[in-house]
């Protein structure tokens, strides 16, 4: 049960088409596979997707943080000492993707060691989640076509629409076209990635008032303190804090300040240990939460669904579990399947998935 080594392996897999949103664009998944080894010969795995434009981490910085900062702190601990590991890693303020991958790889190793799925160790509420698909910037026609294809092929009926372009009416036209073409049965919500001002956000929300939106996410920067508070107070749907709530304490600050009324939980950002803290806060404070997507690979998605399915609150809403569909390939031996709009948790100990050694050899960028 003792951790003997932690590896960080950079790899790059191209996307079939780039995903564009207000704070950036991704055309290649430049992620880091983290492997935690134990003295019993068990290997736990997790994925770190760096988001330079959001949290300042890069592929190289994740490799350095894992191998130089966090590995020395966790080697020698036992897999069950997760709070010890969290306390040690928490001394460093930043590096959320690096910390989270170490945390989740330890949970995977623990599950494999005790012969139980991580989702059951976390909470075991259900074994599945409805899927929400994220639509990146494009013309209204292209985004409607994409949504129709995803709905027909995978049965997905919930869409997160990226907004935050200027002028804001570009995005309002997209959301209106989606509602008109997809009908009232689909769930739609919007994510601005801080791209609009508070005033334009309020205008856009007024103009979309008849479109039955489920949520609004991070429409303007949380650092526009009074503007954001003013916006959130007049918003008639839950307002999700995403990149403004990187830690559990950030989440409390945003909620208590009245600058958010719901939370996005991303295992890529808060791992399993800290995502559980965020979840318990959301539950205790009585706010909704959505399992978010940090533009995850299949391994990242496995982590999101394992966590989201573990709790009643997170399983209630569709989780953002389909971004990997746009990747040209992946590292897992068995690809994930979304059927009738649902993704199930992989059975088996730990996260229940394995890395294909040939694919890792092909895509790793350190040799
Ligand atoms: C989201 O919810 O913002 C875009 C950047 C990132 O880190 O996650 C995505 C989706
Ligand atoms: Mg977001």
UniProtKB/TrEMBL annotation:
GO biological processes: peptide metabolic process
Keywords: Isomerase, Magnesium, Metal-binding
Leader peptide range in chain numbering: none
InterPro entries the UniProt entry points to: Enolase-like_C_sf (IPR036849), Enolase-like_N (IPR029017), Enolase_C-like (IPR029065), Mandelate_racemase_C (IPR013342), Mandelate_racemase_N_dom (IPR013341), Muconate_cycloisomerase_anti (IPR034613)
GO MF annotation terms: magnesium ion binding; racemase and epimerase activity
Record flagged with keyword Isomerase: yes
Mandelate racemase/muconate lactonizing enzyme C-terminal domain location: 140-238
Pfam families from the UniProt entry: MR_MLE_C, MR_MLE_N
CDD domains tied to this protein: MLE_like
Cofactor(s) annotated in UniProt: Mg(2+)
SUPFAM superfamilies: Enolase C-terminal domain-like, Enolase N-terminal domain-like
Family membership: Belongs to the mandelate racemase/muconate lactonizing enzyme family.
Protein name, as recorded: L-alanine-DL-glutamate epimerase-like enolase superfamily enzyme
């Amino acid at each position: 049960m003792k951790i003997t080594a932690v590896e960080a392996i950079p790899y790059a897999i191209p996307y079939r088409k780039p995903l564009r949103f207000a704070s950036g664009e991704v055309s290649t998944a430049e992620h880091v596979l983290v492997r935690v080894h134990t003295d019993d010969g068990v290997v736990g795995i997790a994925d770190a997707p760096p988001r330079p434009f959001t949290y300042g981490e890069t592929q190289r910085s994740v490799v350095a943080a894992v191998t130089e900062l966090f590995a020395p702190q966790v080697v020698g601990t036992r897999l069950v000492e997760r709070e010890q590991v969290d306390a040690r890693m928490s001394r460093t303020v930043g590096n959320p993707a690096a910390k989270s991958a170490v945390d989740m790889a330890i949970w995977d190793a623990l599950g494999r060691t005790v012969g139980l799925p991580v989702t059951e160790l976390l909470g075991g509420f259900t074994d599945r989640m409805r899927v929400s698909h994220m639509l990146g910037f494009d013309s209204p026609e292209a985004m409607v076509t994409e949504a129709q294809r995803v709905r027909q092929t995978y049965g997905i009926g919930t869409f997160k629409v990226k907004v935050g372009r200027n002028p804001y009416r570009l995005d309002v036209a997209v959301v209106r076209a989606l509602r008109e073409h997809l009908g009232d049965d689909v769930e739609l919500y919007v994510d601005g990635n801080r791209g609009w001002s508070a005033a334009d956000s309020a205008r856009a929300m007024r103009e979309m008032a008849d479109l039955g939106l489920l949520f609004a996410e991070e429409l303007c920067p949380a650092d526009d303190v009074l503007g954001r508070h003013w916006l959130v107070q007049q918003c008639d749907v839950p307002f999700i804090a995403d990149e403004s709530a990187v830690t559990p304490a950030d989440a409390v600050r945003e909620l208590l300040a009245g600058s958010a009324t719901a939370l996005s939980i991303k295992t890529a950002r808060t791992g399993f240990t800290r995502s559980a803290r965020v979840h318990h806060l959301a539950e205790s404070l009585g706010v909704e939460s959505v399992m978010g997507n940090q533009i995850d690979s299949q391994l990242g998605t496995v982590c999101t669904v394992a966590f989201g399915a573990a709790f009643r609150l997170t399983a209630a809403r569709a989780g953002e579990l389909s971004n990997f569909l746009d990747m040209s390939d992946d590292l897992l031996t068995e690809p994930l399947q979304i059927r009738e709009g649902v993704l199930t948790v992989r059975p088996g100990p730990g996260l229940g998935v394995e890395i294909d050694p040939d694919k890792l050899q092909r895509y790793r960028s350190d040799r």
